[in-house]
Specification:
22% strand, 7-stranded mixed sheet, single chain, alpha/beta, two-stranded antiparallel ribbon
Length: 299
């Protein structure tokens, strides 16, 4: 007989994945560390696999543990959506949401899919624009909430994660060796464009803007066809692209933040609900890697 999984145990398991520590996970779920350890032991017994392996004084996820994170998230999310459907008042209204084109195909399918299942009566109007224009619309009150790029510490919004800005070229071409270097980028208002050109100028690398488009797909196509190199978020690198290294003459571009900004005033329940779904979706990407060490396991 197939055993039933305990949702409370799964939530504790995900707290370990998100915090990177048994100790911090215990605080997150309001349990003692020994109770967390006992829950994990029972979860391992239920599925018949070891989810953790010893690593020095602490523990890390086993390969089965890494695989289990995604499945656990799906089951917990489905559980929470079902419970919310029958225990919370039906949420209605609309949300005006903005995001740069770079993030639309990466994050929107999961975010909007989960949100629609939880709140089917809420309409979400999506607008894809560069972060600078989204910030202007937020300040004017033209949109309610936006996912934007932050390049410095900010007090204007809520940073959800940090990513590296990297140089990419085609994995099949040698475009990065051309002189002057052709680059594909958005228009002059794009902060990534300013960072990239300033970095090239700092090392005396001749370059020219060969392709300009506000659309990420067009820039991706220019890179993969060997027409230009580009600066983009590491998470946006696609198959057919190769990240260029400093020893190849491409200086590091630094890190940036991805986060939320809201228009001034009291947010609507629909806006707050969408913000919560975005946070949860970003939290789902913080699972432990194979070499990540979590806190000591209680006896």
């Amino acid at each position: 007989m197939i055993p039933n999984l305990d949702i409370d145990q799964l939530k504790t398991f995900l707290a370990i994945a998100d915090t990177g520590s048994f100790t911090r996970a215990a605080e997150e779920v309001n349990k003692t560390q020994s109770a967390v350890s006992m829950q994990m032991k029972r979860l391992e017994e239920a599925i018949g696999r070891s989810l953790f392996v010893r690593d020095g004084r602490g523990s890390r996820f086993s390969r089965d543990g890494e695989r289990f994170v995604e499945q656990a998230r799906k089951l917990v999310a489905m559980n929470d959506e079902i419970v919310a459907t029958f225990t919370k008042p039906e949420l209605t209204g609309s949300v005006r949401f903005g995001t740069p084109d770079d993030y639309a195909d990466l994050f929107l399918p999961e975010v909007l899919g989960r949100f629609a299942r939880s709140h089917p009566q809420v309409t979400v109007d999506v607008e894809c624009l560069p972060s600078e224009r989204l910030m202007e619309k937020i300040k004017r009150g033209d949109i309610d909430i936006a996912l934007v790029t932050f390049h410095n510490d900010t007090t204007e919004g809520e940073v959800l994660r940090r990513e590296e800005l990297v140089w990419v070229t085609s994995s099949r071409h040698s475009t990065h060796t051309l002189d002057p270097l052709p680059i594909a980028t958005a228009d002059a208002s794009c902060s990534w464009r300013r960072i990239a050109t300033a970095a090239l100028e700092s090392v005396g690398r001749r370059h020219r803007v060969a392709y300009t488009s506000p659309n990420r797909t067009a820039i991706d196509a220019a890179v993969m066809q060997g027409l230009a190199v580009a600066a983009m978020a590491d998470i946006c690198v696609r198959p057919g692209m190769r990240v260029l290294r400093p020893e190849e003459g491409f200086p590091k571009l630094g890190a940036f933040g991805i986060g939320l900004v809201r228009r001034a005033g009291l947010p609507t329940p629909a806006t707050e609900a969408l913000a919560r779904h975005i946070r949860e979706s970003f939290g789902a990407d913080r699972a432990l890697g194979s070499s990540a060490v979590v806190g000591p396991v209680a006896a």
